[in-house]
Amino acid sequence: MHKPIEMNLDKMSCRSWSQEGIYRLLLNVLHPDVAERWQDLVVYGGNGKAARNLESLETIIYALKNLRDDETLLVQSGKAVGVIQSHPEAARVLISSSQLVPSHASWEEFRTLESRGLTMYGQSTAASWAYIGMQGVLQGTCDTFGELANQNFEGTLKGKIVLSSGLGGMGSAQPLAVEIHGGVAIIVEVDPDKVTRRLRNSEVGVAMDSLDKAWQLATDYAVKGLPLSIALLGNAAEVYPQCLRENKLPDIVTDQTAAHDLLSGYIPILLSPTEARDLRRSDPEQYLKRSLESIARHGKAMLELAQKGAIVFDYGNNIRGQAERAGVEGIWSIPSFVSAFLRPVLSIGKGPIRWIALSGNPKDIYRLDQELLKRMAEDKNLFRWIHFVQERVHFQGLPARGCWLDYSQRIALAQIISELVRQGDLSGPIAVTRDHLDGGSVAAPHRETEGMLDGSDAIADWPILNALTNATCGADLVSLQHGGGVGIGESIHAGMTVIIDGTESAERRATRVLRADPSMGIIRHADAGYEGAVQAAQRLGLRPWDLGREL
Ligand code: NAD
Description:
The chain is of the alpha/beta class. It contains 18 helices and 17 strands. The chain has helices at about 15-30, 55-65, 105-115, 135-150, 175-180, 190-200, 210-225, 235-245, 275-280, 285-305, 320-325, 335-345, 360-375, 380-390, 405-425, 460-475, 505-525, 530-540, and strands at about 40-45, 50, 70-75, 80-85, 95, 160-165, 185-190, 205-210, 230-235, 250-255, 310, 350-355, 400-405, 430-435, 440-445, 475-480, 490-500. The chain starts with 16 loop residues before the first helix and ends in an 11-residue tail after the last helix. Nicotinamide-adenine-dinucleotide binds near residues 45 and 46.
């Protein structure tokens, strides 16, 4: 087994901060505290990888170290394939991951090509080197449960029991998100090592290995109106039907196993993680058959829990698509988390931004927290959020902050960071990046773009325009990927990163990108007829017919 690659934060390994920042982000997503399986280059989300293999990783690192300020590195599904002459304000790195011609975009074809070493699964922020651990999706998860509470329980989950599964890279945000709203979470996880890891990082309150005991404790806390999170060691495809059989009926049900990938992300019943790994290698067809059988039980139980009155939603892992393949009828009556809870916010340009201290100094993040709170004092949610994460979230790898910011706040962020770096108020440059789940950066008809007002769910021009726009505006890294969240054939999405090092060029490019990027979310939703987006587009002069308006 290779060793984790050490990041030397005391000296520059590349020629300039643009390349250096990207290099540090790449090593960061593979840091043992950040990646779910750094040994396999797997960052999160089933098999979401940062590089195709060790040799490709070494080549990417070599290329980044030698890349000049007027060159651009091309990365094709985790492998550095070329360097082109560009110019100093162009993107330093362009990434395309897991793309297949649409008529070939099936898991079967993907796996054949992957086994021949021609591609890799990049998830969303794994292949674009923007993952920051659980914190990256925490606010989205909190807001999802918050909106669910607003819509159904007068704004609180106090006294409510949430049943979910998966304590992986994304799923581990669930316990804290339920607790922050006062609820009790039971999260089923099949891998004892994941349970231990989440307990060690205080990402979950207690661990249990029997549904009876977990249900008793959950009920005790719910009756008293106290928050708690319980990791329940077990298989979701067994525990969900057991809840039904024993009339243990949670108020809310969802799932964050990596069900989008039935071979590498989902573990069928009666298999331990080690047995699953062995069967996956020795007989993948048998594995897939057993996964589908388990998904059938799992999906059917979710549907029946909904029929018994639970609020049930798909948490972005395509469990409904898989359950349909497994023969579960009526599964599409369960909504996706975006159409049910997040679209109103995404449609007006508010989305998941994250910033990372490339110096490795946590004080840089706290100094930025302080400055944002001062300059955005009118935003009470931001105030609550920053104080909450300061208190409850440990940094994983390089110190970072994840936060949902709107159009004006994103532009202000670029300028605040640039000013502080230039003045020497921070110990080093900052990378600003975002999740691929944003208003204008993704097409996923069973997730982000499910049930669009104008029926444009499957139109994938938007993420492509988003990537082209960010490259035009001079982002340091732009990525365009396929299959993140929901799997091959199910999504196209784009990411971007800017490295703000205090220079005028970086500030100019970062400001352009952080203005254009949320504009895409507004434009996409205005085009689909969302009223809030139409108004925002008019106000900001974003559409051809809004040009020339007095702003
Ligand atoms: P991950 O691979 O890091 O973790 C999945 C976890 O599920 C693992 O710990 C695994 O042991 C567990 N698991 C697998 N099968 C199980 C079973 N049958 N019963 C109980 N536990 C089981 O994945 P992740 O990064 O946490 O992502 C989870 C899913 O959410 C993925 O499908 C991913 O694509 C999707 N996703 C969600 C979001 C979001 O914003 N919520 C964003 C991106 C992706």
